[in-house]
Design brief:
Length: 331
């Protein structure tokens, strides 16, 4: 038996970090906006003739093998894969993973891989798991691996695809697809890799603790980030592209105010060059400090923005907005 699975990464448009419980409970109407993209994470699971389990990460070149799932060290090499195999109690399988996104890109590659592997293992073990239950497994296992709270948003573009709002409230987390023409949005986006792995410019645990401890500046920043996400969602729904650019500028300004380490001199230079070439707004993806950034521009200015970023040392990543989320096949 063989199972192949894959899941898309994402661009986080606005509202990030508020998706970590319990931060969103303190900001009514909290939501994040994201767009799934075609740079996918892949998992291939093949049944073996014995009970051994072998884990292979093609991206890192790391390989782990044990007599069965019980023999895998969840604190050793490839801990995310090991913990997922432990949860599903899988033995007698070779599990191979790879990602189309650069290492440390900040576009939720680990969450996409998590969803792809969890979905693949569920299929391999013939377990029918509802969407939100599978996402809860993925989120909780990742929290075990990184030993800090994880947000709710990144698993949803990986599972569902599309452009969406993740609404966060007292009664739970709910994904709402955004009604827009994806081609109109895609034609205005440029994604670039800064060639530096992200360094967690926003320390989620530190920011979360400061918020809970009553840091007025952090609370005010998150309130503005919440308001920006609401305004950007409205602008996207109206097709008001200049306002989308304005809201993106405000989002980036507040990110830098919340955690100055989210940017670097190289990132500032790249974004400055993009804006001089016509970008209406830009921000780093994910935690920042490196990884990817994306720019928003009128379609006619996109070629100049791409050239400006490349001239300043960035690698331009070709992609399209991905309407399909988790894929599982049985070749």
């Amino acid at each position: 038996m063989r199972i192949d699975s894959s899941a898309p990464t994402r661009i986080d448009l606005a509202g990030g970090t508020l998706d970590i419980w319990p931060l969103y409970l303190f900001h009514e109407h909290a939501q994040t906006l994201n767009a799934a993209i075609s740079l996918r994470a892949h998992c291939s699971i093949r049944a073996r003739s014995d009970a051994r389990v072998r884990l292979v990460s093609e991206d890192t070149g790391v390989e782990v093998e044990a007599d069965g799932w019980q023999g895998l060290d969840v604190s050793g090499a490839l801990p995310l894969l090991a913990r997922l195999v432990h949860y599903f109690k899988v033995s007698g399988a070779d599990i191979v993973t790879r990602s189309e996104s650069p290492f440390g890109a900040g576009i939720a590659g680990s969450s996409a891989l998590n969803v792809a592997v969890a979905g693949g293992l569920a299929a391999f073990t013939d377990r029918e798991i509802a969407a939100e239950a599978l996402l809860a497994i993925a989120m909780n296992v990742e929290a075990q691996v990184i030993s800090v709270p994880t947000g709710a948003q990144d698993y949803r573009p990986a599972y569902y695809g599309g452009v969406s709002s993740v609404k966060l409230s007292i009664d739970g987390v709910r994904r709402v697809p955004l009604e827009l023409d994806p081609q109109e949005l895609e034609s205005r986006l440029v994604l670039a890799y800064t060639k530096a792995s992200r360094n967690s410019g926003i320390n989620n645990w530190d920011v979360m603790k400061r918020h809970i401890d009553g840091d007025a500046e952090v609370i005010a920043c998150f309130a503005r980030i919440r308001d920006i996400a609401v305004a950007m969602r409205d602008a996207l729904a109206r097709g008001d592209w200049p306002d989308v650019g304005r809201q993106l500028q405000l989002e980036w300004a507040n990110r830098k105010r919340l955690a100055p380490g989210v940017t670097t001199p190289d990132i500032d230079r790249m974004i400055g060059a993009a804006e001089s070439a016509g970008a209406l707004g830009a921000k780093v993806c994910g935690a920042g400090g490196g990884g990817c950034l994306f720019c928003f521009a009128d379609p006619g200015d996109v070629p100049a923005v791409r050239e400006a970023l490349a001239a300043n040392g960035a690698d331009i990543l070709d992609f399209h907005l991905e309407q399909q989320g988790l894929r599982i096949t049985r070749p």
